[in-house]
Structure formats: C-alpha cells, structure tokens
Amino acid sequence: MNLFIVHQFPDYDNFVPIIVNLKKKTNLNFAIMNIFPVHDLKYYGFNALLKKYKIEFIDVFNLNKKSIFINFLLKLLKIMPKGIIEKLNSIWYYFYHKYTLFNKKHLVILINKRKIKSINIDESLPEGYKQILFAACKETKIKFNCYRIGIEMRQNIELKIDDYNLFDNIIIQDENLNIENPKENKKNFIRIENLRYSLDWLNEVENSYRYKLKEYSLNLTKEKTKILLVTRPMFSNKSWKIISDELRRINNIELRIKFKPRGQFRPLHVQENIINEYNTSELVNWADIVVSHSTSILIEALIKDKKILFLNFLFKLEGKEEIKYIFENQNIVEYMNSQEELINRIEYLKKNKFNYESYEKYKESKKNFLQQNLGDNFFSKSNNLKKEFIDIYQD
Known about the structure:
By secondary structure, this protein is of the alpha/beta class. Helices cover 40% and strands 15% of the residues. The protein has 2 domains: 2-198 and 382-394, Rossmann fold, CATH 3.40.50; 211-374, Rossmann fold (3-Layer(aba) Sandwich). The chain has 17 helices and 14 strands. The chain has a 7-stranded parallel sheet. The protein has a 5-stranded parallel sheet with strand order 11-10-12-13-14, sandwiched between helices. Helix 6 (104-114) crosses helix 7 (127-140). The two termini are 12 Å apart.
C-alpha cells in the first residue's frame, strides 16, 4: 500500500487525480489519511470516485488511544453553536500547526501492519509532521516522497535542493519551475504533467458536479452577467470587501464570492462557502467572468474559456511590492490596474459578447500557454504517466 497524507483541500484536490491515475496504471493499493480531521473531507465530494477506484481512507484517530479522547473532544466542539465555533480560531490553529495526533512509534506500527511501501505528502505540510513521517520512513526503510502541488504562478522560481533533504523523491507538477543544479539533482526530482488540470480528469470529475460546464450559456441579452470573485489570503479581508462592495454596485450582474480554503481552519460545516455553495470548479462552470489574483484556479478558468480579470492593483492598494506572474504579456488574462478600470471593463463586457471561439489569436495564445505550463500531454484525453514516476511505487 502507498499512503498519501492530506491536511487541507488544496493537497486533497491535487492528490486525488494523481492517485486515481496511478490506480488506473498499476495494480497497487493506495490510501489517504487526513491528519487535520477538523476538516471533514466528505464535504468536498470525491467520495464516489474514491469508492469507484477502491482507494481507502485510513482514520488518523485509530493510530493510538490518546487520539480517541481528541476525537471525542473535537466532536463536542463541532456541535457547539456556529457563533462559538467561529470564535475558537486559536483552537483550530493550534490543532493544525502545533498538535500532532501521532508520534513515530504509532506510525511505524501502522506501516508494518498495513505493509505501507511509501508515504507521500505535499510540501506545505506543517514541519512537525514532516519530521515524524521522515523518522518513521527512515526506521522502516520505506520511501518518503514530497509533491509540490499545483502550478507556480510567480515567474522565475527556483527550487533549492537543501529544502528537500528529507525526501527520496520530489515530484513537480509544473513545467516552468527551475531546479537548482539540475544535472546534479536530476535523480531526486521528477517532473510530471499536472493531472489536476488534465482534460481527462476535468472530464471525469465533471460528472460528479451539480453544475456542469455543458449547462453554461452565454446569453447576455436575457440573463445577468455572472461574476465569480475568488479571494486570496495574501491580501487582507478589508481589500476583498472593498472590491466586492464595488462589484455589488454594478447593475444587472450576479456575484458569487469564493474564499480560498487554505488557511481557514474552522470546521467545514460552519464555512458556508464550502458546504452551502458550489465548489470552485462548479462556480467556474457557472461564471461568465472570473475576477481574482494569483491562484491556480485561473488555469481551470482559462481551460474553460472564461474571461479572466486579474486584480493587479491589489499590490498598490495594500502598499506591497509587485510580483511578476506567468500570465503577463500572454494575451489570455486582462490585468486590472485600478478599481475604476475593473468596473469599466465589466460594464463593457456586459454589453458585448466575449465568447473567445472566434478569436484565433487568443486561441493560439491559450494553446501555447497551456502547453508551456501543463506540458504536451495536457491536450490528450488519456494521460500516460512517466515510467520513472510509476516506478517510484512499483519498485
């Protein structure tokens, strides 16, 4: 068995397509263990897919007796009134960053009992867990693999080998990331296509969505213009409120706001944008225009031919140094350099159809961008995983 550790939605969202594709290509067993059970992953809707491909969930609370009490405590906290739960942010933060639900001994027992051959994490896992997992893998002589999930949106980012000394293999899903001294470190780093944004995965997961892309229609004469605002934690809630308030003043639009999940530690059942809303991919299906900053969800919006307005003025609004992103000068994303420009552009788009199908220049730019960032196999409906990647799990 090969075990994937998850702790928040972004790593879960990226690991599921990787595991499913590995399952398709091998006869191996895979399991997922959520080490931040404050978040109940059932709310994210992958249950049917995991069952279909016989991917197991391992309950972190079964690793030791002490966790039984922690599980009981969490259940009590979760049934408290919503107002109280929202005020317990320090507790949820503590469980995420400071408290570990198991030690090396517990993990070694699990590895031996379940005959685990590798443990796989994403690099943003809290450091305390990394050290425990590394020690357990070293003692049991199994592989400890690290994934850098998602697409790096910044330009000219280089990975330093010293940051990955704990791991046997580092898997990158980004064609643009540079690796320090690539010839020396080639055996440790494996670059694969980003399966989360591959056409075959988008097609497969689409079947589980409540709002499907095929239901979208661009009819600006009869319907309100649908705008999706996706927030980013690198900018303050105050700035996002300023933007959302401005958008709400526009006539004849329907606005939905999606708060990015990383960094929100409260239980999911009190996060209304998680359980009472469509998920982010469904909202991209629904939207005419996606308004945001640096987030890999813009890749999906681009694939689905949504109009993207990039809030570049947020740097100036918060007095931060501007960062260069991979979208610049690509003719696929419109940079908004002021709130006034944002509003004026939406007003224009309300009155003018913006279906890209007729624009050859845009289509060519889009194709080149996706090929550059997602790899050649992105365009294939049947992904072929690299042998060196599959060998990590078959050896």
